[in-house]
Write a structure and sequence with these properties.
368 residues; 2 domains; alpha/beta; globular; 3-stranded antiparallel beta sheet; 8-stranded parallel beta sheet
């Protein structure tokens, strides 16, 4: 089955929308939060655990898989789905964000050259990125771009954005498996709203499967992030999935969903879980705090995840104090369940035209 998107309903009192993305590896109900499995694995989780709570899609990273074990090795294993035993959808980032985060790199018209872990020179280009993603077998591939740092001058942003458009054309030319693999374009423009508009106009001219807002959550702060998303979303094609890359605090998810965004991803729930911070209906809970030493309530009394259904806060604190890996597993299990439930509850509220009520009710209890 090829890739498609269907908009099912838009909330009557906001721009929030519910839809369904169809992929060769199953349907993705939207809005959706995608757990991150950078190296082809979600940290502290097995594929069976993720399937048990009906996670429909994961994000993996082209840059890391390209370095190790290599796209050819993944292809020889039958693709990433077979390699990691995950039968549902996979989205792969292009490697552009990792290039942004590296200190020493050389960006030219051809691509980006940088040094890997073993100090060897590595070259990434639109052709290399798309070829790798096709070999990996992603259901959704991201175009190779430069994630523009914050702050950036308007001239730098304009020049980078123009090059990203030229790179996008090369991505489209390299994209051969169009029946089974979708390609999303990425909207850049830093904090310059007029450049964001120009970028949306330009990217929308290409025959793409979806569109993503990139270059947010890179240090610009929540107010500017909101301003960018609120401004960009109405200009994005309504008949294709809309994605905001790298956004993962619950309050930020509710913000992007309100403005009509369908997809997001972030390492926050898994990274915070491994560090002992759990998300609850009342806000974040730091399980290593001494107050939980004799607290025999579940992490969240309103949660039905495996962790909350079986274990107490006191037990989780004990596991973290004892440096037992089970503590990280149980905390991560809870956080991913929390995020998945938040997506489902938001979708249900949208379908019933009560998203804004849902958001207001959420923040009555949730303390940021």
């Amino acid at each position: 089955m090829s890739f498609s998107y269907e908009l099912l309903h838009q909330d009557a009192h906001s721009n929030a929308r519910a839809g369904i993305i169809k992929t060769p590896h199953g349907d993705i109900p939207t809005p959706i939060f995608m757990p991150v499995g950078t190296h082809g694995a979600v940290k502290a989780q097995t594929p069976a655990q993720l399937e048990s709570i009906d996670i429909p899609v994961l994000l993996s990273n082209t840059y890391h898989l390209y370095l190790s074990p290599g796209a050819d090795t993944v292809a020889k294993a039958g693709g990433l789905h077979s390699f990691m035993k995950w039968n549902r959808a996979i989205l792969t980032d292009s490697g552009g964000f990792q290039v942004f985060s590296l200190d020493k790199k050389e960006i030219t018209e051809e691509g980006v050259t940088f040094k890997g872990m073993d100090k060897q020179k590595i070259f990434l280009s639109p052709e290399v990125s798309i070829d790798a993603q096709q070999k990996i077998g992603a259901d959704i591939m991201m175009a190779f771009d430069e994630c523009i740092p914050y702050p950036s001058s308007k001239k730098y942003t304009q020049d980078s954005m123009d090059r990203t458009h030229r790179w996008l054309d090369r991505c489209v030319d390299t994209w051969t498996n169009r029946e089974n693999q979708a390609l999303f374009g990425i909207i850049q423009g830093s904090t310059y709203l007029d450049l964001r508009e120009k970028c949306i106009e330009e990217v929308s001219k290409r025959p793409l499967s979806g569109y993503a807002i990139g270059g947010v959550s890179v240090g610009e702060g929540p107010e500017l992030m909101t301003k960018i998303v609120k401004h960009c979303a109405p200009f994005m094609p309504k008949d294709k999935p809309r994605y905001v890359m790298g956004v993962g605090n619950p309050e930020d998810l509710l913000m992007i969903w309100e403005h009509g965004i369908d997809m997001s991803d972030c390492i926050i729930p898994t990274k915070f879980g491994r560090g002992g911070t759990l998300f609850t209906s009342r806000g974040k809970l730091r399980i290593t705090h001494r107050n939980y030493r004799r607290d025999f309530y579940p992490v969240d009394t309103s949660c039905e995840c495996y962790t909350c259904s079986n274990f107490s806060r006191a037990y989780l604190k004990h596991l973290f104090d004892s440096n037992e890996i089970l503590g990280q597993i149980l905390a991560t299990t809870h956080n991913i369940y929390f995020y998945n439930q938040l997506s489902r509850q938001a979708r249900d509220a949208i379908m019933k035209d009560r998203f804004m009520e849902f958001k207001e009710e959420f923040f009555k209890n949730y303390k940021t």
